C-alpha cells in the first residue's frame, strides 16, 4: 500500500490527548497540529483565517480521518472539514476514540456520528450511509489502540476507494 497523507479532524480541547495517540502511531503521514500560540494567532484572524488555515492543512491530503469524541458531531469547523474533504474528492472516515484513555486515565462517552447531518444532493442519501465509521468494541484502551493501529491503513484505503466510486 502507498503511504497516504491524511488530515486528522477532531475537537481539540477534550480529545487532543486521545487524538495524539492515533496520530503518533506512525503508520500514515498526518498533518501537524498547530501549537497553542499558533492556533491563538490563527483564531484572532476570525473565520476567514481559520478557514484558510484548514484549507492549507487539507491541501495534498488523500484522506480525512474524523476522530470522533463525545462532542465532535455538529461542531462548525469539523463540519467544514468534512464537507470540504468530501467535496474535494478525498476519502473520509470516522474512528470513535471515546475508549482511548486521556491524560488523566479516563475514557469518555461515545459521540454521535458527525456524518449524519450531511445529505447528498446527488441522491438525497445521508453521508453517514456512505462514509464508514469504526467503533472498536472494547473498553480496554490498549486493545482499542492496537485495533486502530492494525486496521487504520486498510480503513484509509477503503475510504479512498468508496469516495472514488461515489
Indicate the topology.
Blueprint: E1 5-9, H1 12-23, E2 29-30, H2 36-44, H3 46-58, E3 63-68, H4 76-87, E4 91-96, E5 133-134, H5 141-165
Parallel strand pairs: 1-2, 1-3, 3-4, 4-5
Helix pairs in contact: 3-4
Features:
alpha/beta; 5 helices
What letter string, H or E per element, gives the SSE order? EHEHHEHEEH
What is the topology, as strand order, of the major beta sheet? 2-1-3-4-5
β content, as a range?
A: 5-15%
The average pLDDT value, as a whole number, equals 92
Structural shape: globular
Helical content, roughly?
A: 40-55%
Number of strands: 5
pLDDT below 50 for ≥5 consecutive residues: which ranges?
none
- Biggest beta sheet attributes: 5 strands, parallel
Distance between the termini: 21 Å
**How many helices?**
5
Radius of gyration: 15 Å
SSE-based structural type: alpha/beta
Verbal overview:
The chain has helices at residues 12-23, 36-44, 46-58, 76-87, 141-165; strands at 5-9, 29-30, 63-68, 91-96, 133-134. The protein is an alpha/beta fold. It has a 5-stranded parallel β-sheet with strand order 2-1-3-4-5. β3, α4 (76-87) and β4 form a beta-alpha-beta unit. α3 packs across α4. The relative contact order is 0.18.
